[in-house]
Structure formats: structure tokens, C-alpha cells
Amino acid sequence: MIALLQNVWWLLVLIGVMILIHELGHFWAARAFDVKVDVFSFGFGPRLFGFKRGEVDYRFSAILFGGYVKMAGEQPGEATDDPRAFLNKPRWQRLIIAAAGPAMNVVLAIALLTGLYTVNYEKIVDEGGAIVGHLTPDYPAARAGVQVGDKIVKFNGRENPDWEDIFDTIVGSAEHPIPIVVERGGNKIALTVTPILDEREGFGSVGWEGQNEIQVVQVTEGMPAASAGLKIGDLLLKVNGIAIHSRYTLPETIRKSEGKPVTIEYQRDGQQHIVTMKPVFADRDEKPRWMIGVAPDVKWHKVTQQLSLPDAFHQSLVNNGKNAGLIVQVMKGIAERRMSAKNLEGPVGMAKHAKEAAELGASEFLKLMAVVSLNLAIFNLLPIPILDGGMILTLLIEMVIGKDLSMSIKESMLKVGFVFLMMLVVFVLYNDIAKRITPGVVVSRQPHPAPHVKHSKG
Hints:
There is one protein chain. By secondary structure, the chain is α+β, with helices and mostly antiparallel strands. Among the domains are: 132-210, Pdz3 Domain; 214-299, Roll (Pdz3 Domain). 41% of the residues lie in helices and 25% in strands. It is built from 11 helices and 20 strands. The chain has helices at residues 2-32, 91-119, 140-144, 163-170, 224-228, 249-255, 309-335, 347-360, 362-380, 388-401, 407-437; strands spanning 37-53, 56-71, 121-124, 132-135, 151-155, 158-159, 178-184, 187-193, 196-198, 203-205, 208-210, 214-219, 235-239, 242-243, 262-268, 271-277, 280-282, 289-291, 294-298, 302-305. The longest helix is centred in the first third of the chain and has 31 residues, at 2-32. The radius of gyration is 26 Å and the shape is elongated. The two termini are 30 Å apart.
């Protein structure tokens, strides 16, 4: 119960700021053009409490997942002779008012990262470049001829890419061939990989992971790893003589051991150690398998610094641009059925991510807030009736044809938009519940693992 309340609290904090900023955008723009505003509501449904200042009723409503600004005469068919009514204002002013909400969410995302980077900017250092550390059998990368140890020197036309560039391209490119060049033994080899839609992960995948240092991030009490003395922070070097450069090497080796003893070499405080342990057959999180009770993950090498305000602003623009591109790519992939709609998260999933990000610290929470704010802006700009984008599209059409669309067309568009949103709400809620009933393995993106990554346990 306490965990549930914590999830709800952090979700309210996360979306509360974004909703407030979004609605303030509409509100300020409306006031700037002297549009009469009747209600500024945080939440939907019945009014809980609030206050009235001037002609505006500032209120908190029963359903806190959202908000709205009610302007006089804004609904189709709401006839009024008041020159301050929304529909009596020029179309260009109404367009700016509609766009102001998403615009403020973009401003929020940029401001959050700019402020964060002036205090704490983390950059992951990948000195060796994009070197393949693991290949999943029968996946596109392995079938294309990629080998462990290959260095990716060119990917989809980009020279010397990092893993973030690679991931951002692959995630929305299912069934789209991607030309690559790998360096192997001093030779450069041109290959082509075609990502597939990984149903378990919900996005494009080629079945590879970078070569990284791997450390222990979790040890289960009462399991062989704990009995053998492994601790969180130990650097994993080898298992049965096989070098460990991927999160998957250890669990896959253990699962194939059929219960036979495994030998693990690890490093702690600069000293190397060797232990041998016998896996046990257990059921943890997934289907029963051989395990030793340890979760490996990448040991990221980060450089932390404080950027000047201009540099922080520039880096914020760069990172928000990348995030926006990825969001659009995911939406496009879902629309083209190249990506699974399982990627869509509802309030339950968002609440969980918000709590986990908060537990990791203010930096991670602010990063999550920036990404979600950007999501909200882009989603609201979709040309769907009832969303800001639908209103903007309608106004642009009217500006081109020089007259208003008929009332029946506008009312029909709003009905369609409402039905679409209700279907979307039901779908994301179902997604949330299904994910919690049937947990899967979430693979972290490189090089920035999301706060909600589930570790592969061995």
C-alpha cells in the first residue's frame, strides 16, 4: 500500500508540473489576446476546491490526471456576441493560443535540462568506440556476419557512431535494411543488417550489445553467488574462461550449464579473485532456469562536469532534439506497424518510472520529466480532433479556404477525436496491467540506461 501511494505521489509530481506549464501556455496566450477565461482547472470532473480571482475560477478538480483552460465561446455552437469570446478572435490568434500549450512543454524540457547541466552534466566516455560485445543467435546481426569484437565504424552513413546513435536508428527501423561497415583485424567489411520487430521488447532489434565492463548490481541472499562471497560492485571478468563483456554472457552461460559448477573470475578493489559455485534451478521473475542469484549490468564510465549557461543551453537543445526525433520515430513506427504499440505507457507505468527515477536522485527525475514533457508536447500536436494539433489543423484549413468549416463537420470531428482518445486510454491501461501480470525483460538502450531497466539475472 505504501509503495502504491509513493508511485501515485511521484506521478502527480511528474505530471502536475507539466500540466500546469501546458495550461499556463494556453492561459497566458489567451490573456495576451484579451480572450475571456472562465476556468483554469488542474484536473477534470467535479470541482473540489479553489478560488476566484477576477473573472477566472482557479480550481482543483476530482480527476487529477490532466487539466484545462475554459475560454468563453470556445466550443463549436457556443454562440456569443462577446468580442472577447475565443471564436470571435482572428484565426491567427486562436492558432497561437492552441499552440502555446505544447510550446510551453518544449520550453519546460529545454529549461529543465539546461538548469540540470549547469549543475551536473554527465557524459558517458566510450573510448574504444562501438565494439560488439555480444550477439544473440539467429538475430539479424549474427545472420549478417557481424562477429563479437567487431568495431562499427560506419552505421547508416554516419562515421564512427556511438551506441546511442545506433540505438536511435534501430529502434524504429524494423524491416528497413541498414548499411554498416565494421572493422575486423585491420580490415573494413561492408555489411547490411535488417532489424526485426522484437515482440518482447516492442521495437526494432538486431540482437547485439556493446562491449563493456560488467559489474554486479544485485546479489540475492541465500543463492550460490551470495554464499560464494560475490558483492555488489564486483567487476566480472570471466565465466568458465569466457571473457565477460556483456550483461548476457554470464546468465546465458549459467543457463546452459545444466547445473554443473561454474567458475567466475572477478575483480574487487584492484584484486582478482576466482570462485566456483553450483547453480540451482529456480523460478525468479521469469520461467524456471539455472541461476546463481546475481544480476550483472554495465559499468558506465562517466565524466561529470558543470557547463556554462550557453553550453548547457546548447547541450539541452541537442539532447532534446535527439529525444524528440526518437519520439517521432517511435510514433511513426507504431503507425506503420513496424513497432509494437506495447511501447505506449499509461498512468500505472508512468507512476512506476516516476518513483524509480526519484529514488535514483533529482537528476534522473528531471531527465524523466524533460522527456515526458517533450512527449506531451509532440502528442498534443498530432492532428487529432480534440487535441491542440487538431485545432491547429482546423484553423490552418480555414485560413487556406477563407471560411469556417460547417458546424456539423466540427462536431463530428470532436466526436471522432473523443472516441479515439477513450480507446487510447483503455489501451494504455490494458498495456499497463498486462505488463505487470506478465513481466518481460526490458533491454536498456545504450549508452543511457533508463531508470526502469530490469537486469538479466543469472
